Amino acid sequence: MLQDGTHPGLLPILGFAVSMAMTPGPNNAMAAASGASFGLRATLPQIAGVAIGMASLVLAAALGAAVLLTAYPGALLVLRYLSFGYLLWLAWCLARAEPAMAGGGSEVAGSPLGFAGAALFQWVNPKAWLAAGSGAVAYGADAAVILALVFLGVSMVSTLAWTLVGLGAARILRSRRRIRMFNVLMASLLIASMLPVILGR
Prior knowledge:
- By secondary structure, the chain is an all-alpha fold.
- The chain has nine helices and no strands.
- Helices cover 76% and strands 0% of the residues.
- It is globular and about 50 Å long.
């Protein structure tokens, strides 16, 4: 329910979810790198995990988790730095991932983020918390289920689209060296997306 007592329509919520999910961020950078290195089929569990994890986070935030965290600044600070540490580790994994190219004759270094890892990652993903918290403030607990369902669908479409971007990049770049350079670029984007949160901006 909005502050004036009216219920939000579906289109404003959909527009908000699309603006948050489709723009560059940790989920999309990881999806693109995974698509480039491992392909669509291997990335599907990650896509599903992002969607389920994001929906559960949005639901929890709308039902009061965002307010609870705001009331305890120390917990928010710990979450911020834990998030940054985990993102640095993920960026390292992305940067060193060896593309799984047919006939390459070498083993793949690393593997795509699985369903559980992608779902749990949303709970330390700063952009996910920004989206969930903003949605909770804007639409309130009355729209919690609608928010969660919309983010479920939009997150799935977004990560799928970015996976296909990575897949297309792999087909254009073709060589292992160029795909690894693409992964390093995605890893850099992953870190850059976190800097405003760490700097408190």
